[in-house]
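By convention, the C-alpha cell line describes the chain's fold. To illustrate:
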Amino acid sequence: MSVGVSTPLPAYTVDPAFMAKKAEELGFESIWYAEHPAVPVESDSPFPATGGEIPWTYSHFTDPYIALARASGATSTIKLGTGITLVPERNPLLLAKEIATLDRFSGGRFLFGIGTGWLREETEIFGGDFEHRWTQTREALEVMKELWTKDEAEYHGKYFNFPPVKSYPKPTQQPHPPIIIGGMARNVLRRIVSHADGWLPNRVTPAEVEDSRRRLDAMAAEVGRDPKSITISVYGQPADGDVVRSYLNAGADRVVVRPDHVANEYEMGKQLERMAEAVLR
C-alpha cells in the first residue's frame, strides 16, 4: 500500500533526518512537510477545520525545503513531499531552483504538493493577491515549467514578467516533479487536469474520493490525458488501517497519515512503529 506520513506540529522537536530515516525503514512510501512562514498575530481569517481561531501550533512550522533536504540526505527511497507549498507566498524563479536542486540531489524523489492558501493576512504580507490567488498560482506554475524544461526561459504575464534567463539545475524527474494540487475549491479537479498531476485533499470522505476519481477520469479523457497519470493522495488521516483501506478502495493512490506531536525522537520512533503496524501490515 502507498501510505505516507506527515509531520506533526511543532515541526522542529524531531529532526527530519531521524523521522524520514525511521519512516523509510518501516516501509512508509513518503514523508510530507507543510508550511506557514509567518502567521499574523491579528487575523480575521477563520481556521478552515473549525471556523474558529487559528491554532497556536500554526506558527511552529519549519521551512519544508530545508527539512526535506535534510531528510533526503538520510534516506534513499522514501518520497519527499510538501503538503503544501503556499505558492502565492513564494517567488517562482527561486522556488523552481529550490525544487530542481532538491529533486536532483534526492534522485528524483520530490512531490510538489501545492496550495493557494486560506490565510488572507499571511498571503498579503508576502505580496500575494489573495482575491486572485489561483490566477497568480497558475502563472507561477507556468513560470516554473518554463524554467524546468527550457535552456532559455522567459515569461510575460500579469504577476511575473522577465526576459530570457537560464536556470539550472534541471530536475531529475522529467518534465518536472509531480504537481499535486491541494484543497476542495469548486474548480480544483478541472485545474488539476489542465495544470497538474494529482489531487491532495484532506477533509474528504471515501465517497467523495470515489466520485472525484470518476470525474477526473472523464475530464482527463476529454482532453486526451491518460487518467492513470493523475493521482489522488488523501492527506492527514488517522493511522487506522480500516480508514486507509477505505480511501484506497475508493480510488485513492496514496493515503498520508498523521502522527501526534511528541517531545523527542525516542517517542516519535515508537509512535511510527505503532502507526506502521496499524496501516502497513
DSSP finds nine helices and eleven strands in the chain. The longest helix spans residues 133-149.
